[in-house]
Amino acid sequence: MAPRLRLMIATALLAALVCACASSGKSASSNAGSKVLPATVTERQYDPSGGSVSGYRGSGVWYLSFEAQDGNSTVHYRYQVTQQQYMRYPEGSRVELVLQDDELREIRPGKD
After folding, report:
1. Over the stretch 45-88, which tens digit does the pLDDT of each residue have?
2. Neighbour order of strands in the sheet with 73-81
3. What pLDDT digit, counting tens, does each position of 1-39 carry?
4. Which long-range contacts (CB under 8 A, 24 or more apart) does 30-34 make?
């Protein structure tokens, strides 16, 4: 019985080692294929959706407009953002935009 038990333990250890090695490889980053652009907030806009029919405020849509440098070009973007992002970045704020397929993925505070 002892050799058989040793064989089972050795097999289990080998299987655990193989699993650990297989899962330690780096997976594709969620930001793979994305680009980070330094930008400045140029305009903030709030659009109350549907007006104030029910009198309930806060159900609108918030937008931030940005001016960014993409290579040698100056580009302008306008994206829908959360209310928290809208409040956090007033006009003139320097930020970093993380874009993937020209869609906004993240807004980071700019590096001065």
Report:
1. 999 874 555 555 557 899 999 999 888 999 999 999 999 999 99
2. 73-81, 61-70, 35-47, 94-100, 103-109
3. 576 666 556 665 555 544 444 444 444 455 568 899 999
4. 31/98, 31/100, 31/105, 33/100, 33/101, 34/98, 34/99, 34/100, 34/105
45 Cβ contact partners less than 8 Å away, ≥ 6 residues apart: 62, 63, 64, 65
Q: Which of 90, 100, 97 is nearest to 75 (CA)?
A: 97
Q: Which CATH number applies to 35-50+57-109: 2.10.25, 2.40.50, 1.10.10, 2.60.40?
A: 2.40.50
Give 92's contacts (C-beta < 8 A, 6+ positions apart): 40, 41
